[in-house]
Specification:
Layout (H helix, E strand, L loop, with lengths): L1 H18 L22 H5 L9 H4 L24
Length: 83
């Protein structure tokens, strides 16, 4: 009986230690404040490898005009034929 209560006490202390762990302070903090400079992430970093617009025709290119007809209706795609 006494042996089992000692084991139960030991297991209780061991499981409580998992929730209240000891933290060790290091001379350098492990946060991101030690970064020398900010780095570009994901797509922003890959923009450096994209082709640059060097020709005047590329630089001054106008966007594509997707205007609808003046009556704002789509043309008929199918026509029904009668006998």
């Amino acid at each position: 009986m006494k042996f089992s209560s000692i084991i139960a006490l030991f297991l209780t202390i061991a499981s409580a230690d998992a929730f209240f762990g000891v933290t060790v302070q290091s001379p350098r903090s492990s946060t991101s404040l030690n970064a020398k400079h900010a780095m570009k992430k994901a797509a922003k970093g890959h923009n450096a490898y994209r082709p640059k617009k060097s020709r005047p025709s590329d630089i001054k290119r106008a966007p594509v005009n997707y205007s609808l007809p003046k009556d704002n209706e789509k043309p008929a795609e199918y026509t029904l034929g009668g006998k």
